[in-house]
């Protein structure tokens, strides 16, 4: 391992964050700075704590890599300029969007948008996880009127290099079942309670009423967290750890990703690696992730969904679609491919080699 030290700033520790840290640790000594920014009451404390952490960590660091645009990128940008350290920012979705209709997007908050602009315009380069985060137009959800989204829409004068580097999934963690025993006509989706409408939970409930003989499973949500009437064929699994989630990916025939906006779709890729057949919304990067292995609903409406559902349920080649789902993710969104692209980009923008 190289002894080159880098700073990695992140507001959270999702699975894709941990994967990036493992990747980077093959080439650098990674100093992770992570404050609980999700708790708004702690924001002033986090601001001070991050300043002190960076003050004692900046010396000897080769560069700074920031995960998500946000408040935590402010000190990274300041310290980068003061100490001559290049700053790179990975964007994931909410940091490139403003969708008031869904109460979604960091850029709908005036102060946060100004901080994002401050850091984006001073970064050495920005690494979005899909092209749609550079610029896209949303047509899936008719409730959205703010259709144009992405870095270049919200910051038209942004002139720093932008290079898309897709997320990568660990195919050794998300595997096909040894003995497939899937629940016939079963549909799984993963979301938190706050993401229910954003990720199409409302549409899935409408679909469930039309297909009483199918089973619909929500991971990450408890029924008690939603004040909604549901049918007997709808099941809420609550929080699942990775092992439990793997089991559900392997036992359900289909996976729903019906988001109105989705920066990438890691859970969708995980499910596909496990052989779940994807049914996705026609938005952002989801159609490219689904590819030819599944189905796309063109509009957030029950009429559009029923047409696609009938095709999915009536498929005579489910086994082939299941295998193709895994093969498609392996070929296009592997962890090894992200490692290659991320390190190549860092070498290019720093002018140094880290692979020797």
List the helices and strands and how they pair.
Elements: E1 5-9, H1 15-25, E2 29-33, H2 43-55, E3 61-67, H3 72-83, E4 86-91, H4 110-120, E5 125-128, E6 136-137, E7 148-149, H5 151-154, E8 183-190, H6 201-210, E9 215-219, E10 234-238, H7 242-251, E11 252-257, H8 266-273, E12 277-281, H9 286-290, E13 295-297, H10 302-313, H11 318-332, H12 335-350
Parallel strand pairs: 1-2, 1-3, 3-4, 4-5, 8-9, 8-11, 9-10, 11-12, 12-13
Antiparallel strand pairs: 6-7
Helix pairs in contact: 2-3, 3-4
Average pLDDT for all residues: 94
* Radius of gyration from CA coordinates: 21 Å
Query: Which regions have little confidence, pLDDT < 50, spanning 5+ residues?
Result: none
CATH topology of the largest domain: Rossmann fold
Could you tell me the number of beta strands?
13
Main-sheet strand order equals: 10-9-8-11-12-13
Give a concise summary.
With 356 residues, the chain is an alpha/beta fold. The protein is built from twelve helices and 13 strands.
Description of the molecule:
The protein is α/β, with parallel strands linked by helices and 356 residues long. The protein has two domains: 5-167 and 335-350, Glycogen Phosphorylase B (Rossmann fold, 3-Layer(aba) Sandwich), CATH 3.40.50.2000; 183-332, Rossmann fold (3-Layer(aba) Sandwich), CATH 3.40.50. The protein is 36% helix and 18% strand. The chain is built from twelve helices and 13 strands. The chain has helices at residues 15-25, 43-55, 72-83, 110-120, 151-154, 201-210, 242-251, 266-273, 286-290, 302-313, 318-332, 335-350; strands spanning 5-9, 29-33, 61-67, 86-91, 125-128, 136-137, 148-149, 183-190, 215-219, 234-238, 252-257, 277-281, 295-297. It has a six-stranded parallel sheet, sandwiched between helices. Strand 12, helix 9 and strand 13 (295-297) form a beta-alpha-beta unit. Helix 3 runs parallel beside helix 4 (110-120). The protein is globular, with a radius of gyration of 21 Å. The termini are close together. Residues 211-313 form the Glycosyl transferase family domain. Pfam families: Glycos_transf_1. This is Glycosyltransferase involved in cell wall biosynthesis.
């Amino acid at each position: 391992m190289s002894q080159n030290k880098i700073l990695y700033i992140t507001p959270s520790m999702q699975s894709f964050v941990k994967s990036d840290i493992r990747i980077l640790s093959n080439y650098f000594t990674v100093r992770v700075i992570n404050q609980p920014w999700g708790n708004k009451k702690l924001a002033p404390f986090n601001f001070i704590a991050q300043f002190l952490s960076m003050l004692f960590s900046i010396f000897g660091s080769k560069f700074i890599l920031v995960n998500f645009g946000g408040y935590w990128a402010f000190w990274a940008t300041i310290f980068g300029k003061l100490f001559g350290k290049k700053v790179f920012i990975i964007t994931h979705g909410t940091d490139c969007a403003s969708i008031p209709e869904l109460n979604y997007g960091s850029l709908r908050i005036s102060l946060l948008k100004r901080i994002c602009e401050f850091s984006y315009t001073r970064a050495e380069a920005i690494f979005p996880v899909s092209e749609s985060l550079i610029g896209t137009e949303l047509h899936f959800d008719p409730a959205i009127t703010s259709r144009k989204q992405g870095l270049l829409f919200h910051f038209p004068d942004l002139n720093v290099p932008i290079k898309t580097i897709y997320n990568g999934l660990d195919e050794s963690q998300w595997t096909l079942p040894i003995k497939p025993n899937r629940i016939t006509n079963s549909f799984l989706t993963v979301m938190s309670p706050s993401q229910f409408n954003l990720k199409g939970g409302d549409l899935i409930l409408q679909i469930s009423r039309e297909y009483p003989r199918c089973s619909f499973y929500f991971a990450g949500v408890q029924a008690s967290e939603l004040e909604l009437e549901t049918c007997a064929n709808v099941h809420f699994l609550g929080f699942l750890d990775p092992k439990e989630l793997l089991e559900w990916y392997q036992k359900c025939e289909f996976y729903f990703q019906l988001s109105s906006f989705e920066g990438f779709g890691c859970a969708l890729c995980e499910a596909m690696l496990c052989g779940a057949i994807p049914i996705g919304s026609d938005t952002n990067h989801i159609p490219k992730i689904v590819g030819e292995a599944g189905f796309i609903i063109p509009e957030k409406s029950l009429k559009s969904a029923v047409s696609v559902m009938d095709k999915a349920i009536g498929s005579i080649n489910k086994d082939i679609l299941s295998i193709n789902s895994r093969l498609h993710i392996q070929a296009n969104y592997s962890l090894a491919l992200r490692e290659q692209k991320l390190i190549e980009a860092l070498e290019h923008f720093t002018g140094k080699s880290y692979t020797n």
